[in-house]
Amino acid sequence: MATALTVWALSEAALAGDGPRPTYLESGSNDLIQFQKGGVPTPEITALAQSSAAREAKQMTNAARVQKSPNTRSLGIARSDNPTPGAGLLQSAPPELPEASSDAAVASSAAPQAEMVQKKQRARVGVRSLPSAASPEAQQAPLEEDIDLRLVTICLTNPKHAQGAKGFDIRRDGLPRYVAEVGEMACARFEPTRQMLYFWKADGSGELTPTLSSRLDLNDSDGTLVTLEWLRDH
């Protein structure tokens, strides 16, 4: 059964000021969430958010791998756990050498070609070992560090007296990617832009259902922390 979301817009005035001030979000069923913007995430919180991102990336990679991998049974390909000797080796005949009237002629024509191939291979290895400053390899590390420093960390705390799991996400479809069990915290990191936060909570059967949502302006919040605590659960 679909659940209507209660939408709360957090005004910029409520989030502005000399220091961080808590704001409260309340749903139609009297769920109450304390919202506070400001501060810097601790190393423990950063590690928790990074582990969530790594887990999500792994799940996406596994899903893409399953979609791309062919089903050998559906293609009618028989698989054998005991391959025959030499299976998988190149079966085509080696390239023919130019015709020569004697063994000396063959040796004189093949040696320069082999030497030329070796020189080309050494040249290619040398190019790879010394990437230029403008290469993608040289620019990737600084770029990733800049992105990492810009991200805003959002953490949801589910207190020990809660009735079930709580979750949040910036997308509404499907289940939330970030879920906090009773007495635990879930953290994620997002771009410092205008976002829409959606919240879920476990119903009587233990399934997560959408409860409320809130607009959130994270502009000019690079590298900061947003804390959410589910105070009241009804």
Note poorly predicted spans: 11-17, 72-111, 124-131
Radius of gyration: 30 Å
Basic shape:
globular
| CA-CA gap between termini | 18 Å
Element pattern in H and E: EHEEHHHEEEEEEE
Strand numbers in spatial order across the main sheet: 1-9-8-5-6
Helix content: 25-40%
Region (Disordered): 57-141
Biased composition (Low complexity): 100-114, 129-141
Biased composition (Polar residues): 57-74
Could you give a quick summary of the protein structure above?
The protein is α+β, with helices and mostly antiparallel strands. The chain has helices at 12-15, 43-68, 103-129, 136-150, and strands at 6-9, 23-26, 32-37, 152-157, 166-169, 178-180, 185-190, 194-202, 208-217, 225-232.
Structure notes:
There is one protein chain. Strand 5 (166-169) and strand 6 form a beta hairpin. The longest helix has 27 residues, at 103-129. This protein has a domain at 6-12 and 22-62 and 151-232. The protein is globular. It contains 4 helices and 10 strands; from the N terminus they run E-H-E-E-H-H-H-E-E-E-E-E-E-E. With 234 residues, the chain is of the alpha+beta class. Strands 1-9-8-5-6 form a 5-stranded mixed sheet, with no helix packed on it. A 5-stranded mixed sheet has the order 2-3-10-4-7. The protein has helices at 12-15, 43-68, 103-129, 136-150, and strands spanning 6-9, 23-26, 32-37, 152-157, 166-169, 178-180, 185-190, 194-202, 208-217, 225-232. Residues 57-74 have a biased composition (Polar residues). Residues 57-141 are annotated as: Disordered.
